[in-house]
Amino acid sequence: MSTTETIATGTDTTTGTETTTGTETTTGTETTTGTETTPADSSERTRGPRIGENAPRPDGVPKVNGEFAFGNDMWIEGMLFGRTLRSPHPYARIISIDISKALAMHGVHAVITADDVPGQKLYGLEHKDQPVFASEVVRFHGEPIAAVAADHPETARRACRAIEVEYDVHAPIVDAELSITAPPIHPDGNIFRHMFIRHGHPDSPESEGVVAVEGDYEIGMQDQAFLGPECALGIPLEDGGIELYVSTQWIHADREQTAACLGLDPEQVRMTMAGVGGAFGGREDISLQIHTALLTLHTGRPVKLQYSREESFFGHVHRHPAKMWYRHSARADGTLAKIEARLVFDGGAYASTSSAVLSNASCFAHGPYNVEHALIEGYSVRTNNPSCGAMRGFGAVQTCFAHEAQMDKLAAALGIDSIDLRLKNALKTGDRNITGQLLSGVVPVAELIERCVAHPLPAMGEVGEMMGRPGGAGRTADAHHIKRGFGFAIGWKNLMFSEGFDDYSTARVRIDEGQNGPVVTVHCACAEVGQGFVTLAQQIARTVLGLDEILLHPADTQVGSAGSTSASRQTWMSGGAVQQACEAVRTQIFASLAATHGVDPETLAIQDDHIVSVDGTFSIPVEDAVANKTFEATEVNRHVQTVRLDADGQGDAHVSFAFAAHRAVVDVDEELGLVRVIDITTTQDVGKLLNPRQALGQIEGGIAQGVGLAVMEEIIVTNGKVRNASFTDYLIPTTLDMPTVTIAALIEEPEPGAPFGAKGIGEPPTIASTAAVAAAIRNAIGRDITRVPVRPQDICL
Amino acid sequence: MPIERIAVGLTVNGCAVEQWIDPCAMLLDVLHELGLSGTKKGCEMGACGACTALADGRRIVSCLALAASYAGAAITTIEGVGTPDELHPLQEAFIDHDALQCGYCTPGQIMSALGLIAEGCCDRATIREGLSGNLCRCGAYPRIVAAVAEAAGL
Amino acid sequence: MSGVAFAYSRAADVADAVARGGAPGAAFVAGGTDLLQLWKAGRATPTELIDVYGLGLDGIGVDGDELSIGATARLSDVARHPFVVDQHPLIAEAVLASASGQIRNMATVGGNLLQRTRCPYFRTAGMACNKHRPGSGCGALDGEDRHAALFGAGSSCVATHPSDLAVALVALDATVEVSGARGVRRVGLSELYRLPGERPDVDTTLAAGELITRVLVPRAASIGRLATYVKVRDRASFEFALLSVAAVIRIDAGTIVHARLVCGGVAPAPWRLPAGEALLIGQKPERGVFTVAAAAAVEGAPPLPGNSFKVELLRRALVRTLTTIATGS
Predict the structure, then answer these.
(1) Which DSSP letter does residue A379 get?
(2) What pLDDT, on a 0 to 100 scale, did the predictor assign at position A34?
(3) Residue C171, phi-psi category: left (phi > 0), alpha (psi -120 to 50), beta (remainder)
(4) Residue B6: closest CA among chain C residues belongs to which residue?
(5) Which domains, ranges and CATH numbers included, belong to chain A?
(6) Are residues B139 and B97 in the same domain?
(7) A161 touches chain C (CB under 8 A)
(8) Are C242 and A792 within 8 A, CB to CB?
(9) Does the model's pTM come out above 0.90?
(10) B112: closest CA of chain A, how far (Å)
(11) Separation in Å, CA of A393 to nearest CA in chain B
(12) C144: pLDDT confidence band, cut at 50, 70 and 90?
């Protein structure tokens, strides 16, 4: 062991790391088949797992032995260390910024501000309204003002402290409702989006049923809280461009925004995915990409910028806090007559994806139910709170909490069972949603509900040992004060990007002769953030091509965009692109066989590892058919065109929909206000299970985040200032907080148009799990719960 | 501002190393200086467990361990678990149960579980409490507990 | 990483530590789990750390009529030591409700008693905090005050003491042995802590350079074994207390003859509730008695807007703790 050794430079056959530009920089792993355990000279090849099988992660071994290189493991000789100076105020006018003392410090190579941004001064995913650095006004606590590059992280930190900023501090606008009519805090105004969805004739007298219930609901600000903090490494190129390694969800969008601010052509910004330590929506927006690139170009030196945990809380967007008013009106038989809602989403200082989040919240505001009439009014609003954007569930989480509470309330008012009420109104294939879109895909709402509630409950019996009771390791439990409650909720959302977005993914597939037979290389810019796309890509290639050795090229901008790893879209979009590229290669292989063997390519198919003709007269191992040949194809997978909602919120805005139901069992210590989520039983429509074990992991993980929002997770912002930017104070569930997850049913009904019929599965587990837990708490204590996260005082006082 | 570096002898994964360190350095940073990046920096405040390593067989959070204070200690990191050719049974169990997604917390989970098993864990409840110092935001908890239970012979 | 650089040395022995520990800028370090967090946050700025981790002050044993726990005994060792488990399982309960397995392997008894508040205004650089710098103001008074104190706070500071162990030890009438320039002294743990007053930056009555060497707890025979620790928080594990209660009672011939009610997370120090204790003495260990005592115990607590719920929550936790002891469940 030596002190000069850098990181993870080992290159065994399964975990080869990519080395760039002849330096010692390593990036996220390049992975070959994880099943390849045979010696290199062996002629025996292991059959790799196909679609539908429990394929192991190709990056599993490096992740369990510590070799996997995440963003902050990147290192290159001679690199400088970046640091960001951030505003201590949520709203202030900047009177002056004096960088002279910082710049004069020994070891400081650059101090940059808005003046040093050569290209566009503003950026944004949907709407360019966020300054790269604030120069005149700061609009949220933690907004970047300057950045420093120095020879040591400590020097950079001191240099940031030496920058003198004079502020004229203003009272922040922190109430979204008030902000709607307040003087604008940004030249683009305070309203990111104001929209209506009018369905049926909500203003007509006939729209009113005989029973109505109303409610106000509120949801706190949740953080993605991924474990691996943001990091980027920039390396200047001789042509004036830059190479940027970053842990992100969408490198092409990063490149586009970064290049615009640098004043470079996108081609001059080469980006490569670094290992991503979780994302959950929090890496969809720009955080440190542009700052890193600016420092790199400014100094002409490699620069690494990484966030501490505290800075991570300031550096990325959060889930929108929301206030929602609802009114449900029903006919005597339980038919939903009308749903009215007014949604106010606090988008914080800058737009991020606030418009799309609100659209989702509004489109799914009625729940997966038929309703005769609806009037949904939605606002997403600018305030001086931290910016909010994408997080798993993307708008649907907030309204699900409200619409499911309303359904329970309505059932009680009608005097009918809440499950029966849901079943009576359940959407099904062929129905239209409130935007008028025909639901032509799989819509198994009734089956999901029925199978979820039919599943046997966990045994009542003993309330478990101490650790399993409310209060956990706090030893508070007294079995006499524990009440068990049950709650049900079902939610839905769209898969893929909506409202006319040109959403596509690109994959390049190549077959070369390797040392030990043919090797398939899959090149796709899809961000692997833990969801298992790398596993799936291998399974798809094996299944389509009948070959076993699949190499994954690092995700980078040398291939077209794969779009974002979000919106539960990558299995469909990038999985589909890989499938199409493999099929294009397969067509080339068949054509080559036609030339060499005189077979009709139209009659050929790949069955397992052989190419066979339909009449059975021709058969050749795929390996032999491609031996010593090269094939390559690049395909772009686009989903059907969607449209932007019109002024009445009408239009075919979405591609496909996914649904999941949750039944929560909670034990509540009603005296001390403590909750223990015992079990979540779930059903989900998955289309087809491509990798059952990984699918279950997504479901369990999504539920963990839903449970967290229900009972503990909230960024505390008082008067615009974040009070708990740490893992000590921002609580996420521990192992002891995690309920058992019981899968009652995964409905495998292929979705038309989806590769292999598979629906995205990442988000649905997070949508209704929060609502189900809240319902279970209400059931246990017999009191209303209208805000999450639920805290002790909400339960017992 | 610079304070003199001090010499510290450690045994890291069985190898004796003598390192000149900053007296303010955390063990986590010294491990990284040694090229051992498998020990992850998640929060730097002892709240997430991603940096868990063993010191004389006991699990600690290396982000709050003053390296100078550990002079003479035997440190085990994830790189010292298993061999390049053969994973440790607990690592195998993590693979078999798919007890990870993004993998950032995984080395810390494994090191913490090794320490916990050495402390003695008799049932799954003990494992769950015992691993509550290791956050997993991907929510792989049920699988992590299953993998640890298997490795603990439960 | 972040604070101002410090020099580091290991103390040769207690005398050496005490001789050097009083110097301006000097601080003792053992497990470091709290001090180093504060240092990283820029809220502790020692120029010299004197390491007492290796001084052998980690013994646990019986000394005459007392249980003796060395100041650098690791929390995990304390929690599983047979003497502790046998004599005062309350101590083990409080320790096991604290922190994580890793932190318990590092943190020491002395460090735990001397850890500083978790108030976010104290822990975060750039925020107004009189405990950090007297006169700079108290952000919690008109800010996020859910975790603020119910008892013992002043207009300068509403921070709470976060230790679980200290709450249990006060309930057991523990004393600490302190070495300093003027020799060895013993001080009741309750007297170790001071209220903020005009000097919220000073948490304890220790003189500069004084080092806690051990904690002494009367053996069970003299104070009874009916005790438990209850901790209420927002997460099932690995979180500081929203509030906690340690209660100890001794029953003779069916009536309570000794009682200690101490709560944590609600005051600048572990907080005894003498009014509640007094109402238990001479009474039968019954829920009705507990309810009356608990109500008296919390009477007069002056809450802030965001923490007023804790008064009622504390009352209930007191009843719960006493009931748990009485029923043995």
Answers:
(1) E
(2) 34
(3) alpha
(4) C8
(5) 7-68+504-638 (3.30.365.10), 73-171+229-276+283-311 (3.90.1170.50), 322-498+646-796 (3.30.365.10)
(6) yes
(7) no
(8) yes
(9) yes
(10) 13
(11) 15
(12) confident
